[in-house]
Amino acid sequence: MPDKRATEDDVVAELRSGMTIGIGGWGSRRKPMSLLRAIARSDLTDLTIASYGGPDVGLLCATGKVARVIFSFVSLDSIPLEPHFRSAVESGAITTTQHDEGTFLLGLQAAAWRVPFLPTRVGLGSDLFRANPQLRTVRSPYDDGEELVAAPAIELDAAIVHVHRADARGNGQFLGVDPYMDDLFLRAARRGFVSVERIVETEEFLAEGPVESLRIPRLLTDAVVEAPHGAHFTSCTPDYDRDEPFQREYAASAKSSEAWEAFRTKYVDLPSHADYLAQVGLP
Amino acid sequence: MNDPTRAEICVVACAEAFRGDGEIVANPIGTIPILGGRLARATFEPDLVLTDAEALFVTNDLPLGHPDAPKVVEGWNPFRMMLEITWSGRRHVMMGATQIDRYGNQNIACIGPLEAPKVQLLGFRGAPGNTINDPTSYFVANHSPRSFVEQVDVVTGIGYDRAGALGTRGRFHRIPRVVSNLGVFDFETPDRAMRVRSLHPGVTVDDVAASTGFDLVVPDDVVETRAPTDDELRLIRELFDPTGLRDNEVA
Predict the structure, then answer these.
(1) Which residues of B touch A75 (CB under 8 A)?
(2) DSSP label at A143?
(3) Is residue B145 situated within a structural domain?
(4) ipTM beyond 0.90?
(5) What's the domain count of chain B?
(6) Is the Cα torsion angle A86, A91, A93, A99 positive or negative in sign?
(7) Residue B1: inside a domain, yes or no?
(8) Across the strands, what pairs with B26?
(9) Of B83, B116, B123, the CB nearest to A92
């Protein structure tokens, strides 16, 4: 039986500068923050980040890890615009490749199915073609002959996601109401890294949730990191809600380089997730 | 009931955007549009399917600002299933717009050139997919020459000129309504340019013209946006928005 238990730093050691990394979650919801902080304090650079973006994108931009962001939005939800991401775009520090939420999904699905694109009407007539010069159209080979958008496969070197439960083998379980696109990110990636609130025995899964919640087969995972409150300050319902006061503190840290350095020293540049939990005052 | 506020006029105007929709997903985004969608179902459009603003379809009348209110769940609708509904054409979304132009092109991506944005906004979100597949209405809380512009900086949601240029490929495009804090607008004109459908009580044609960065089509007889009924006002004030969140969006 494989034992895929690992630490955040073990996962970072598997990553390389220049990689394209997909991040699960949605906006400021269920982001793998303990893994992201480990990346932020590593010497990785020039990453391409693909995300339904929130503070994951902002944190990696603010710590200079990012060359390019593949996104359809970046938002903190209760704070509509992500200030660190905004600064990075407006200063020209990063480049972007933009998607509709749907072409993004289809791009992940195409990569997961190992096909170069999937056809859709999404994007026709819009400036998505200017915001994503990679986009092409394709003509239906059938009698309708309709010209559609060919949403290109978004192939990932690695995906990192945070879910509720997993076993040591790397089977993962969602207990929240929305799995977002997490399992698709893992399917679209060569390597999959999952952090979880709690590692359980395989026998315990069906006491935690219904069989339909077991959406991450161990085929998709290379390592499992146990990180209680690992999504903090983003939400991880039903285990916990977003920490709104902390999110406001995070957003305010974009006001000046001094404010950011203070935030970074206090919350990011810590040796481990356990030190972070102690700093924030979580069990 | 005392007189309706401007925010309450807007709620009813948003509700009216969903009149006649029948059994589709009404997906209003933002406080006043959500109140409008819930009001429409509670009154004249009972077959609408509504979410709890997260991943559940719920049948009961949910108040805003009370996340722990009991829900009667009739379905599961995580984001990826909402996208599938969008592509199937069974949805009417009401989005916001940082900029909107005379043909209904919407921008929520950035201000300034795409290549070097002066202000980075949300991004394209679902706007291209919404507008090519389903009826898409808009609510703009701050009608001004900066929001109603001659030409949007970036086309995220496509307007009638872009859809028209697509020929039959644009056949699912429709913008039923644009509601703002000043009035209600549609595109029922020969060239699909934006038209004044009604103005909210107290707003004049001159007011709205001065607040709009392009020439609106103004009919000979401009009607007033209909007032909420007493029943509607009671539902808004006592059931759907008892804490007055609507006033944060439109003063």
Answers:
(1) 122
(2) T
(3) yes
(4) yes
(5) 1
(6) positive
(7) no
(8) B92
(9) B116
Query: Looking at this protein, which amino acid is placed at residue A108?
Result: L
| Contact in structure between B115 and B105 (CB atoms under 8 Å) | no
Task: Give the mean model confidence (pLDDT) for residues A131-158.
Answer: 97
Which tokens sit at B97? Answer: 């717009």
Q: Tell me: pLDDT of B251 over 90.
A: no
Regarding pTM above 0.95, the answer is yes
Residue B90 lies in a domain: yes
Our CA-based measurement puts residue B176 at a distance from the nearest CA of chain A, in whole angstroms, of: 19
A–B CB contacts, 8 A cutoff, strictly below: 131
Query: What is the full DSSP assignment across A179-217?
Result: -TTHHHHHHTEEEEEEEEEEE--GGGHHHHS-GGG--B-
Q: Which residues of B touch A184 (CB under 8 A)?
A: 80
Q: How far is CA B117 from CA A70, A135, B70, B114, B186, in A?
A: 16, 20, 43, 5, 30
A34-70 pLDDT, tens digit per residue, is: 999 999 999 999 999 999 999 999 999 999 999 999 9
Give Cα separations from A181 to A23, A208, A241 (angstroms).
Answer: 9, 21, 19
What's the pLDDT tens digit per position in B111-160? 999 999 999 999 999 999 999 999 999 999 999 999 999 999 999 999 99
Most B-contacting residue of A70, A127, A129 (CB-CB within 10 A), to test interface:
A127
Domains, chain A, ordered by start: 5-99+155-280 (3.40.1080.10)
Residues in chain B with CB shorter than 8 Å from the CB of A61 are none
Which residue of chain A is at minimal alpha-carbon distance from B84? A102
Distance from the Cα of B56 to chain A's closest Cα (Å) equals: 8
B125 conformational bin, left if phi > 0, alpha if psi -120 to 50, beta if neither: left
Cβ contact A77:A58 at 8 Å: no
Do the chains contact at A126 and B133, CB–CB below 8 Å?
no
Domain with residue B49: its CATH number is 3.40.1080.10
Q: Which of B117, B128, B172 sits opposite A126 (nearest CB)?
A: B128
pLDDT given at position B68: 87
Q: Does B209 touch chain A (CB under 8 A)?
A: no
Tokens of B157: 């949601």
Q: Is B214 exposed, middle or buried (0-12, 13-18, 19+ CB in 10 A)?
A: middle
Contact of A124 with A97, CB cutoff 8 Å: no
Does residue A162 surpass a pLDDT of 80? Answer: yes
Identify the domain containing residue B154 by its residue range: 6-249
Hey, are the CB atoms on A127 and B109 less than 8 Å from each other? yes
Contact with chain A for residue B251, Cβ under 8 A: no
B8 vs A270: CA distance, rounded Å = 50
CB contact under 8 A, B114 and A127: yes
What does DSSP assign to residue A176?
A: S
